[in-house]
Amino acid sequence: MKVYQADQIKNLALLGSSGSGKTTLAEAMLFEGGVISRRGDIENNSTVSDYNRVEHEYGYSVFSSVLFTEYQNRKFNFIDCPGSDDFIGGAITSLNVTDTALMLLNTTQGVEVGTENLFRYTEEYSKPVIFVMNQLDHEKANYEQTLENAIDAFGSKVVVVQYPVTVGEGFNAVIDVLKMKMYQWGADGGEPQILEIPDDQKDKANELHNTLVEAAAENDEPLMELFFEEGTLNEDQMRQGIKKGLIARDMFPVFCVSAKKDMGGRRLMEFLGNVVPNVSEMPVPKTADGTEVKCDPAGPTSIFVFKTSIEPHLGEVSYFKVQSGKITEGMDLINANRSAKERIAQLYCVAGNNRHKISELVAGDIGATVKLKETHTNHTLNEKGTEYLFDAIHYPNPKYRTAIKTVNDADDEKLGEVLQRMHEEDPTLSVEYSKELKQIIVFGQGEFHLNTMKWRLEHNDKIDITFHDPKIPYRETITKVARADYRHKKQSGGSGQFGEVHMIIEPYYEGMETPATMKVDGQEIKLNIKNEEVHDLPWGGKLVFNSCIVGGAIDARFLPAILKGIMEKMDQGPLTGSYARDIRVFVYDGKMHAVDSNEISFKLAGRHAFSEAFKNAKPKILEPIYNVEVKVPSDRMGDVMSDLQGRRALIEGMASEKGFEVIKAKVPLKEMNKYSTSLSSITGGRAFYSMSFAQYDKVPPEIQVELMKAFEEEEKED
Ligand SMILES: Nc1nc2c(ncn2[C@@H]2O[C@H](COP(=O)(O)OP(=O)(O)OP(=O)(O)O)[C@@H](O)[C@H]2O)c(=O)[nH]1
Ligand SMILES: [Mg+2]
Asked: Which among 169, 215, 244, 674 would be 20 to 30 A from 578, CA to CA?
């Protein structure tokens, strides 16, 4: 395979809503570039991009795939991303390592929710966008409507480069107003005939040509002057203007294809090759410490691993972008994240599951290698003496969580390993074993995301699992002062056990005063505080332990044992067995025995006294409350609000932002179960939300009763 230089390489993200035809278009362009000799399709599970079994099962892309093709002495690296919002991780990965996005529009649907969502990401990453109208051969195709939608949604920067002569079954030609030619295909697509524009299309073509020329001139002062002098621009000048417009996101050109019939791919590649920016024309990437790393083939070798996949018979494949220098087979590099040496034994250019060996890859290119020992996604590898370290790709927080359980306990260990591997392949999928909830919780972007995970576990790894509602990490606390005395006494044979503890407990809050006396059950008790210990609890909140023993009623050396006894009960609140928090304890009296008292006796006395006092102190269950921010299109605001109210939400604010209403609310975690699915169905997938932990609050009385009942049942079962 040929080695390409930076100015011959174009890195492109294939984006667009699910079903817009990205995978099919990639197949056509690989075929036209001669990288594959047969054009596969989705219906026969035969595309090079969707090669995973789960993708065949669902008929969708699930993973982003790295593909290359060659055309007119250019190399194109495409990353074909899944369109569904549940697999947004793929689009994010690709926007981090490509320079231009091809946004497919399904002309049978117009601009879709998914298109708008993805467009927003291209905005965030400041990437040029080219719109590709697809499915023009479909009987329901509507070019004009889709174009109108696009202008409505993305503004007048959407500029036509091509329009179809007819759409639907008869689609076989487009007018290209940059070239001012007609491209026409035979039934099999592929190479077009380049013809003069027919008379009946001339007026329309001229008008669109003038609009394009003006749009191209607008982005460059000298071009603008030239345009005023000459009244037009030549093709080269237009290309120059369009390139500037693309980079500045001042222009979103529109192209036409039928991916399925292989029409338009060649002309599109010609344009991509000649006009879209290459890496060195885009802003210079920076390392984590702000060092600029120019795309320079003569610079020190540095590569960034952006994706890992585990392939049958091959093991781990690491996909990387060459940020600087050249990488050659047999090279030794240092992993900057692990300070470990890695040998690059083989180098590949990848087209889905086809790998083509290559001896060298130059700055700006994308490739893959296998069998790295310690390198994972997001790692930087450098040649010796270079210390670049690139920031990890940042993925959105999970939106969906569920508990999973293996059907056969024997699979537990394997499940852990497989889930770890899946996380490596798809960072938006993560797993956590909660010791507190005694559940394995998996986190993802939505229900569909986790369903495909389940399918893969069952079919690829032969691990049967079931989904369960994740438990809620409740807490318990007290709401009033209570007192308890407890005597632990045991007389058996020789030495016995004896310990007696008197204690008062009360609700603790930040900044409360320390009293000198306390009134409990009508009795005034004097507190001689000797020592106060504030313990931050690992599960949040505090336990404040005061020793106020006078006259040596209990020896100081037994106090740690009393605290230990209390801590054992803090682990397991009396209402639901949840962790307790925010309690202040005063041990103010007790008794001991000269011979029989020991640590164990006081630990037990402390524990029982605390347990009794806890029950008398009006205990309450606390639940986790989350800050939830929902971005919703104005017309769905009412529905989303009433749904939130049904979830016991406390609305804290509303604001308008770029065509969206932003609702800020505090919502109990218990009510947020499957929220992403409901929000999506209420708004047709047009809303977004994020959530983060805020605080613990008391649950309403009826929920407390419900939870206590459930706990009792559970205890009985155990
Ligand atoms: N008629 C027609 N059908 C097409 C065309 N392009 C794609 N399709 C069909 O549309 C469906 C979806 O195509 P894909 O290539 O899987 O779409 P995608 O954008 O990769 O979809 P996701 O992977 O789910 O994001 C398949 O059934 C294709 O055969 C086209 O140009 N014309
Ligand atoms: Mg696809």
From this structure: 674
pLDDT per position as a tens digit, 645-696: 999 999 999 999 877 899 999 999 999 988 988 999 999 888 889 888 999 9
Overall pTM > 0.85: yes
Query: How close is the Cα of 84 to the center of ligand 2, in Å?
Result: 9
Candidate CATH numbers 3.40.50.880, 1.20.1250.20, 3.40.50.10890, 2.40.30.10; the one for domain 302-382: 2.40.30.10
Q: Are 345 and 371 in contact (CB under 8 A)?
A: yes
Q: How many CA atoms lie within 13 A of 689 on its CB side?
A: 28
Superfamily of structural domain 400-471: Elongation Factor G (Translational Gtpase), domain 3 (3.30.70.870)
- Identify which of 530, 529, 598 has the alpha carbon closest to the alpha carbon of residue 558: 598
Nearest atom in ligand 1 to the alpha carbon of residue 50 is 23
| Fold: same for 400-471 and 623-703 | yes
Four-residue CA torsion sign, 386, 299, 14, 126: positive
Given ligand 1 and candidates 30, 31, 42, which is best to mutate, with the most ligand atoms within 8 Å of its CB? 42
Could you identify the atom of ligand 1 that is nearest to the CA of residue 55?
A: 23
CATH number of this structure's domain 623-703:
3.30.70.240
pLDDT tens track for 435-494? 888 999 999 999 999 999 999 999 999 999 999 999 999 999 999 999 999 999 988 767
